[in-house]
Amino acid sequence: MASEALPSGAPAERSHGRRLLVIWGALTVVGVLLIVFVAGPHMPPGDFSQEARDQREINILLASLAVPVLFGVWACLVYIVSNFRQGEGALQDGPPVRGHSRLQVAWVVATAVVVLSLGAFGTEELLGSAKGAGGGQGPDPLAVPAGPKLQVQVIGQQWAWTFRYPAYGGVETPELALPAGQTTELHVTSLDVSHSFWAIQLGVKADAIPGSDNVTFVRPRRTGTFEIRCAELCGLWHGHMHNTGTVMTPSGFAAWIRQQQVANAPATRTLPPYSTHYFPDPQRRAG
Amino acid sequence: MLVALYVVDFLAATPSTVKAAEAPGGARLTLQTVASYGHSPHPDWVSYLVKDGGGKWHHTTVFQVPAHSLVHVTIYQYDTATGLRNPFWSQVRGTVGGTMAVDGRTMNALNPDLASHTFAIPDMGISVPLKGVADDAKNQCSVAPCPLSMAHTTITFTFRTGKKGKYRWQCFVPCAASFIFGNGGPMQSPGWMDGYLVVV
Ligand SMILES: [Cu+2]
Ligand SMILES: [Cu+2]
């Protein structure tokens, strides 16, 4: 019996440990490389805006940090199950391991480093940078990006989104179109219950609350389509509250908005003047 | 046992499907809206009803119509106006010609304050505001189905169906009196202020 030839079993333990470390390290390196270079460029929400890019970078970072933890657990589990399975006829558990202080210290330090550094990183993202400024999501909820902005009002109701363009006579449409390269100031509100406006690939999400005007900003970097969803369970047909938004070239947008002005003229005539608190007297019209 | 009872109750509560009557080039859908259903389980709830090919009224909001064809809709509107919270829905959208006829008059929009309900199929881009009966109209109906001898407005329009599918439809007027912001109860219950258009 090989184990009897060893003085205390320590060298065998060490070789198991070394083998595990090698397996874990190899899996981690491969996993992180796959996350960063293969999956990363396709991770949500995309690169439609700087905000979306920032969010994707955070997703890549968090996924990369999860890889060593995940593979550490899996490698230990598979290694232990395949090497230390109880043999047939064995009646007792193996001897318990007690007082391995180096292992305990390493465990506490490693987990503390992971948790505390993630905490510091999250705090910095929330307070130290202006990512997601506006809508109460940045360091200063009243922060306003410089330069000209296109105002668009996002109106949620059971169960549809509509979008108003005050600079174009207050025309309202069921489609959201934005010009590329232009900073847009989105005013998000609701006419009834709480909804949540989520323009996924733009990296924009803001609560739509009756009586509130949640302001958020985004500058789409290129043309294309993006998805809009309601991210707050809002009743029977919450799941149908989705649209496809479009980012157009500035000239394409100008043509589109002219078309909307003509098509929606009968309704635009009866719309109330633009107000950032779009909520015409709910009680009067509550039936 | 409780689960089984729940499932049976749920299935029994699912509104039945009524096939629209056949018409040249498509189908004819005849509906009525009533201020109150007048029967259990919710006698005071506002509701839609549909007429089958044999002329019988049914309390359901699941209507079957043919694909890629014209659907001629007639709605007898017996309820008074609640008014649209968002005047955006006052415009007729998605119908043939972008219009409706209200008591024989062709219109492309309605004063939002006069709307009693809307018939809207958001995924097909269709929305039609329905003009309410005057508040002081004589001979108002309160128990379904309402006869044509009682106060009503008649709204007609035509739309074209596309490919087969199950499309939800709903009312955009917050018309459920006594519910918060007028949006609960019948507005959240298929069979009352919303349902399905089953395109086959
Ligand atoms: Cu919603
Ligand atoms: Cu209604």
Task: Determine the N-to-C terminus distance of chain A.
Answer: 87 Å
- Helix percent of chain B reads under 10%
Count every beta strand of chain B, where a strand is a DSSP E run of 2 or more residues. Answer: 14
Global outline of chain B: globular
Alpha carbon gap, first and last residue of chain B: 36 Å
Label the structural class of chain B. Answer: mainly beta
Mean pLDDT of chain A: 84
- What fraction strand of chain B? 35-45%
Order of helices and strands of chain B: HEEEEEEEEEEEEEE
Secondary-structure element pattern of chain A, one letter each: HHHHEEEEEEEEEEHH
Q: What characterizes the major β-sheet of chain B? A: 8 strands, mixed
Computed CA radius of gyration of chain A, to the nearest angstrom: 28 Å
Silhouette of chain A: elongated
Number of helices of chain B: 1
The structure class of chain A reads alpha+beta
Query: Which residue ranges of chain A are poorly predicted, with pLDDT under 50 across at least 5 consecutive positions?
Result: 1-7, 132-136, 282-287
The residue ranges of chain B in which pLDDT falls below 50 over 5 or more consecutive positions are: none
Strand content of chain A: 15-25%
What's the total count of β strands of chain A? 10
- The oligomerization state is heterodimer
